[in-house]
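Notes from hallway chat w/ T.B., transcribed later so I don't forget. T.B. wanted the structure written out for a chain they're using in a teaching module, and asked if we could keep both sequence and structure tokens in one place. Agreed to drop them here.
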Amino acid sequence: MTTERPHGLMAHLPMLWPAGMLVLFFVVPFGIMLAVSFFHQVQGAFFEPAFELDNYGRFVSAFFGRALLFSLWISILSAAIVVAVAFPFTYFLTRLRRRAQVPILVFILAVLSLSEVIIGFSWSTLLSRNAGLSNVMVWLGMLPRPVAWTPSFGALLMGMCYLGFPYTVLIVYPAMSRLDPELPEASRMLGASPFRTFFTIVVPVLKTSLMGAVIMVFVFNLGAFLLPQVLGRPPHWTLSVHITDQAVFQSNIPFAAAMAIFLMLFSLAFIGLTLVLGASREAPR
């Protein structure tokens, strides 16, 4: 007995609902934001419909250049640190017994339940002068007096790494747990050290998951909004914070919309370039 597949509109009916949601909650807001990015900013007022490129022309200014370069720098640095720490951590985690892995994974999932607000103010308290870790170090005799480590670049970097660490572990863990244990064992039997085995066997085999983790942490931190305000100073603000500042406090919504368009397109271009480079390296020669 053979059944014929539906043709015409009935064949695409299951896709209408998700397509409609995509258009309603992504395409329409993106179109509105794109249109507003070309509007004219009225001094002392709101904005008026127009078509001008002045908002995009400000991208070549020193203000936008500093904000963009700092956002890229701290996103790349935090992604590199997080992956460098989470990758070997996950490797040793998967080598443990299942009974020992469960509480660690539960703890990591519990960290994901914390909002960025709680994480930001928790790190701000830990690094403060009055109730921070410096008081413990004074009690242990390691410091002469309490010091404040926030707001600073180091505090912001630490907070962003903490925020991205659980996501990286959960991305790498499934592929790492499926890694054939005979591969590292064969490498060690051939005389390779554990350090060399990790970087010549484990890392190349799991490069796809590793690349996915780098992309996720980079894009995630590129859009960081609250942590730069809580743990950093105005020079440490990312592009997302400047977008909010222009829209809410400066009342320059057209320029904020232009920056938001640029940030989204830049993130998509980075993801696409990374995927293309990864596919070219995996292609057979």
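Follow-up for T.B.: The mean pLDDT is 83. Might be a good example for the class.
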